[in-house]
Recover the amino acids of this structure.
């Protein structure tokens, strides 16, 4: 199924105590396991090795189910009025003397952080439920005559990120706040440096996202993170070793953002001697 998660991933919990035994998590996609290499191979036309390991930096569970269990009903309907975060608009423009219409949404610019964990030689990333991703999967399944996909398919891997919706704060200050709220690390603003910026959702929004970079270790941990419950955030915090980045990027069954993919490649180049 196009909606299944990774063929097989190896997970272990990372806490202040000893790590728990690794748990092999299998998706519904058919696979075979090489007992000697401990590698899962997808049984598809483009079969590739997809082994990679996450350290869990939040929560006390090594699987996704506790986060899935927090979800309830899910319905898709027509859009209502504009909100504080999204304002629909219709553009009229001319090209070569002809007039065209284009629908778009106004939204806030945003920040994200390529966060390197010095103790683990790993990238700190997050995973959370994205309703729009799941709604798109539902629509695709219905069109193809397939069963409704599991809710787990709506969880995506991303950088720690947030909207730049506070005019009184700099982008770096916003990034520092998001690192504390989502990942649980107290990262000083003067250690957060801009990498680049890009236009996101260029077909419907074109809003600017700025990517920052910083480093942490466990001495900077002040909480488990997880986001703000009042805002409906339910975030897993994960650490992906840079040595596993190539396999993670090659696993198309693990939904991930383009910004995350760029940041992981950037970190591989910057910290190549730590891999």
């Amino acid at each position: 199924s196009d909606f299944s998660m990774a063929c097989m991933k190896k997970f272990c919990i990372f806490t202040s105590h000893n790590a728990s035994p690794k748990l092999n998590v299998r998706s519904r996609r058919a696979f075979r396991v090489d007992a000697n290499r401990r590698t899962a191979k997808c049984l598809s036309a483009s079969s590739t090795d997809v082994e990679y390991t996450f350290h869990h930096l939040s929560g006390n569970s090594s699987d996704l189910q506790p986060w899935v269990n927090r979800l309830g009903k899910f319905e898709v309907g027509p859009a209502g009025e504009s909100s504080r975060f999204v304002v629909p608009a219709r553009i009229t423009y001319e090209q070569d003397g002809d007039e065209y219409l284009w629908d778009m949404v106004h939204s806030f610019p945003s920040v994200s952080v390529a966060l390197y964990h010095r103790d683990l030689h790993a990238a700190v990333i997050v995973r959370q439920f994205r309703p729009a991703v799941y709604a798109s999967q539902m629509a695709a399944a219905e069109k193809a005559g397939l069963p409704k996909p599991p809710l787990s398919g709506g969880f995506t891997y991303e950088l720690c990120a947030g909207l730049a919706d506070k005019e009184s704060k700099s982008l770096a200050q916003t990034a520092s706040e998001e690192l504390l709220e989502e990942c649980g690390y107290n990262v000083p603003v003067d250690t957060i440096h801009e990498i680049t910026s890009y236009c996101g959702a260029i077909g419907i929004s074109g809003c600017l996202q700025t990517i920052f970079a910083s480093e942490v270790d466990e001495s900077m941990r002040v909480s488990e993170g997880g986001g703000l419950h009042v805002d409906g955030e339910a975030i897993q915090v994960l650490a992906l070793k840079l040595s596993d980045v190539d396999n993670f990027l090659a696993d198309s069954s693990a939904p991930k953002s383009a910004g995350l993919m760029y940041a992981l490649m950037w970190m591989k180049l910057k910290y190549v001697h730590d891999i």
